[in-house]
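haha ok so turns out i had the wrong file open the whole time. this is the CORRECT one, sorry everyone. sequence first:
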Amino acid sequence: MTKGSAFRGEMMEVMGPIVGPRMLLARMAIQDCKSIFSEEIPRATKKRLADHNSGRLLLEKCLDKWGLPLDSLEVLRTEHRAPYLSWINGVWRNEPLPGISIGHCQKWAVCAIIEPGYWIGIDAEQKEREIQTNAFDMMAKGDELNFLIENSKMAIETWTAKEAVQKSEKLGMHLNPRDINLVEYNVESFIHDDLMVSVSWRKAGSKPKTAEDDLLDATAEAMRQNPEFTVGCKTVKNNL
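then structure:
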């Protein structure tokens, strides 16, 4: 375990590393805190707010360690509510950004960042947590289900691995865990102190469009339709 530097008085622990694309994996104790990336969650319980804010603060720490300008970034969500990074409207930057994933388990928030061009998912649970055998058919079927019934100690690793895949595919529970064949994905599981941690990654898919993307597309279309279309202010040569 490698400990990160202090940031607003809290500490994060860097986990891993995993062989593959450049990644940063970290965890931080869940606590009462705030982040510049925190969302408004009406009627949320104190525990729900602590989970959410701790995950977003950990993301903030990870992005700072990665070397990105925090004041130029925001966290948006896809149609399936998967979080992703975007440049704030008005910054007018189009450099590709890292993929991100956040998770929570009991007292820990976990976060993963991966180099641009990839999507990533992270999930963690207490390594000693037991899953009741009558719940196995919610995450497995066929031969895999029979294997878990005979090898129940593998259940927590299988569960976290499948949740990591759901996140890396940006589908969440829209991807049925029973339909996930782990051998078909990049997924690694490891133990970090008291946690079973699973990480999955894949080549990035299409990025959701921003308002600035829509404006640029509209401008490009206007230029195609009208060769005399111009953008920006007019200047008089003698006034330059």
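Residues 31 and 84 are 23 Å apart (CA to CA).
again sry for the mixup
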